[in-house]
Write a structure and sequence with these properties.
637 residues, alpha/beta, flat, 23 helices
Length: 637
């Protein structure tokens, strides 16, 4: 067919009038199909054309916000509102400012349309509780992003959980973005705001007005939110069950008093580093007759003994209590808290960096908390052997004890505490500098048959003598962690290994003086049960240990011999061993492991999920071959 129009760009340019598309349409409609037009270029500006003034073309954009708002709220369904939100930022922000009650809905239309949208929105996560959740952080945390989330989920009731962590440095989240969430997500149950300085009371007020089903609120480093916003939450969200406030300098007693008055279902409370929070705020939450609090954490607050007295008297339902950095609380506060006899349900207690935690206070806590099972004391410099032993005698239900940086406690207190705790299952000592390696008489002490886990880490004074004494009192250990104990030797550890039966997890990392003799004893006596063995940094451990492990440890699934004296021969012996469950193997820092070990590693790799070859003498090409063959294994090199 002859060419009707040709704009190839190589033809001669003809001046004059253009061939109007309207004329061409007319000719074709008359049946002149064989019309021939000489090849020509389209003129950039044609004489007969009139350039229209676009600014005078009627457009919705010239309407004021009030009129455009009325139009947009009458869109029939969620799909239409979502499409409209993509037109411009102005339309998006207007749509996000609409409350659900302001949207004109057609029930028959929306039910069908919204069901289709749910199936196509794959960007949102669905929690096991059945509601939508979204986490926005860093550069993505902007008002526009929140507005888009609000509009996109509004037809399904909006989000159930929203977490905002930080905000865009240039276009950070403000009250506008949080208000959009409040309007579009009235069924919001969980809200977390972390480090969002531009969000203040105005945004939280909108959440309080619109999200009456809010159950959990987490405010961290929100320096613009004050008591006003928290009071609004208290008055409008009576179903609040969990409240966390951290480093919010404008929130004080007034806000907490409102929470105590209106939120009678509150079960979990965490207040940290809020300088305006004192006794009035804390006691108002706890002294309410309808208080349902079960978990309480107070850190770095200006509270006194009075608050601890209230906790001890009214905390009848509290099961978990964490007290940290309470500098104005004295020995009297802990003594009254224990002797008030109100903490009958307390199961777990953590005390950190509290000068008021002394021997007298700790003993009182043991007496007043008959169901206490987990006790953690950290950096309490006035707790000594006497208080520890007295507490152990009184706390008859104690199952777990953690002592960290308690430098007045010695091995005398530890041995006597272990001997008096009939139900103790786990003992952990960390950086207790008061422990010295002294020989003591232990014949009068009873073994702790219930102890299953013993962890002694970074206690430089804990040596072979102390370890041998502990070993006599712990015959039923399953887990043993002695990492960082440079002073222990084979002579101290062997009696413990001989006295125990059925060790499952053993961590001996950085025990520099242990040799193959310990590993041989461990493999022969506990090989049938051993599942994890960490020998990282044991520089006197050699291939002989791998031979013993290969022959005696069929259940071993995690082995770390980093920085040990391991060669290709040891790796070969391990590959011929009986263990069929080995999943994690670390040879980091074993410089004598070379390319010769590649065949052995391939054989081991049938079950391996993790292999560390960092600082070994294995070439990059060999590692690449291993990566190809062991495709299931994560290899570090």
């Amino acid at each position: 067919m002859p060419t009707l129009v040709n704009y190839s760009g190589d033809d001669e340019f003809y001046s004059g009038g253009s061939f109007c598309s309207a004329d061409l349409g007319l000719m074709l409609s008359l049946g002149h199909a064989e019309v021939y037009c000489p090849p020509r270029k389209r003129a950039r500006i044609s004489g007969p054309f009139v350039v229209e003034d676009r600014s005078k073309v009627p457009s919705l954009e010239v309407l004021p916000d009030e009129c455009l708002f009325e139009i947009l709220r009458r869109l029939p369904g969620g799909r239409e509102r979502g499409a409209a939100a993509c037109v411009s930022k102005r339309w998006l922000m207007l749509l996000s400012s609409m409350r659900n009650s302001e949207i004109c809905r057609s029930k028959s239309y929306n039910n069908l349309n919204d069901t289709v949208m749910i199936s196509k929105d794959e960007d949102l996560e669905v929690e096991c509780d059945g509601y939508l959740t979204r986490c926005v952080e860093g550069k993505k945390a902007t008002d526009v992003r929140l507005a888009a989330i609000a509009v996109g989920t509004s037809t399904r009731g909006g989000l159930g959980k929203l977490s905002i962590r930080g905000s865009n440095s240039a276009r950070g989240i403000t009250n506008v973005g949080l208000s959009a969430i409040a309007h579009g997500c009235p069924s919001l149950r969980v809200l977390s705001l972390w480090n969002v300085p531009s969000i203040g009371d105005e945004g939280l007020l909108e959440v309080a007005r619109e999200c009456r089903s809010l159950e959990k609120l987490d405010l961290s480093h929100c320096r613009s939110i004050s008591n006003k916003g928290l009071v609004a939450i208290a008055e409008n969200c009576p179903g609040l069950t969990s409240l966390t406030i951290e480093s919010c300098p404008k929130i004080g007693n007034e806000g907490l008093q409102a929470i105590g008055k209106w939120c009678t279902k509150l079960q979990s409370l965490t207040i940290k580093d809020c300088p305006l929070v004192g006794d009035q705020g804390v006691t108002s939450l706890l002294s309410s007759g309808a208080s349902m609090l079960t978990k309480v954490k107070l850190h770095g607050l200006n509270i006194t003994d009075f608050s601890l007295a209230v906790i001890g008297h009214y905390g009848k339902l509290i099961t978990n209590l964490n007290l940290s950095s309470l500098r104005n609380v004295s020995q009297k506060g802990f003594w009254v808290m224990g002797n008030a006899q109100g903490l009958q349900s307390l199961v777990s207690l953590t005390i950190t960096l509290c000068q008021g935690a002394t021997d007298v206070g700790v003993e009182a806590v043991g007496k007043g908390c008959p169901n206490l099972k987990h006790m953690c004391i950290r950096k309490c410099c006035f707790v000594s052997d006497g208080g520890l032993v007295a507490f152990a005698i009184e706390a008859g239900s104690l199952e777990s004890l953690i002592l960290e940086e308690c430098n007045r406690i010695t091995q005398i207190g530890i041995l006597n505490a272990v001997s008096n705790c009939r139900k103790l299952r786990s003992l952990s000592l960390v950086k207790c500098m008061g422990i010295k390696d002294l020989a003591l008489q232990t014949s009068m002490l009873s073994p702790c048959e219930s102890l299953r886990s013993l962890s002694i880490r970074s206690c430089p004074g804990f040596g072979s003598t102390s370890l041998a004494m502990v070993g006599k009192l712990c015959p039923k250990l399953h887990q043993l962690d002695l990492s960082g104990l440079c002073g222990i030797t084979d002579a101290g550890l062997l009696p413990l290994l001989e006295n125990c039966e059925g060790l499952v997890k053993v961590n001996l990392s950085d025990c520099l003086n242990l040799t193959d003799q310990v590993v041989l004893s461990l493999a022969t006596r506990h090989g049938e049960t051993l599942e994890l063995l960490n020998l990282d940094g044991c520089r006197k451990v050699t291939d002989a240990s791998l031979v013993a492990i290969a022959d005696n440890c069929p259940l071993l699934n995690d082995l770390d011999v980093s920085k040990c004296v391991i060669t290709d021969s040891g790796v070969a012996a391990l590959s011929r061993g009986v263990q069929v469950n080995l999943q994690i193997l670390s040879l980091s820092g074993c410089s004598m492991v070379s390319n010769k070990s590649v065949p052995s590693l391939k054989k081991l790799g049938e079950n391996l999920l993790g292999l560390n070859l960092q600082h070994c003498s294995v070439s990059c090409s060999s590692v690449e071959l291993l990566v190809e063959d062991l495709w299931r294994c994560d290899i570090l090199s």
